[in-house]
Design a protein that fits this description.
0% strand, 165 residues, elongated
Length: 165
Amino acid sequence: MLSLINRANRMAGVIAGGITAAIGFVVCYAVFVRYLLNQPIGWSEEVGTYLMLWAAFLGAGYTLQTDGHIGVDLISRRLPRGIRTKLEIAKHLVGIAFLILLAAKGFEDCLLSFRLDEVSVGALAIPMAIPQAALPVGAVLLGLQMGERLLGTLIRSRVPQEPDR
């Protein structure tokens, strides 16, 4: 199961990287046609914004997996190992609870937009459920990765360690 979570987040990270490349292409294309061909396009900002949402939310779990998130451990790393472990467990539990709420609310909003057939106000009239789906999908992937981290912390806390020096 843990291997599946890690593979899913690695795949999501690769997809997020591909989406980021697509954003670069869309922006370059928009600049090219606007300034060199004098034919501005109206959809590039909308597409770029929605792609950015997907890249950010898909990449969040992978970023946690690779320890890429910013963290402040100035105080916690000075604490004794037992307290530090309890703090890390609490951090993961609070994070998972928050992500469950975020995923549930995001899914609820996405479903409502789908039922109401909401579309974007831009030139493409994209169904809003598509960009809104990035939130619950990303929250689930990040929550699963955080659960994997929690499990790792719990397993390490059961293994006898050398005392802190």
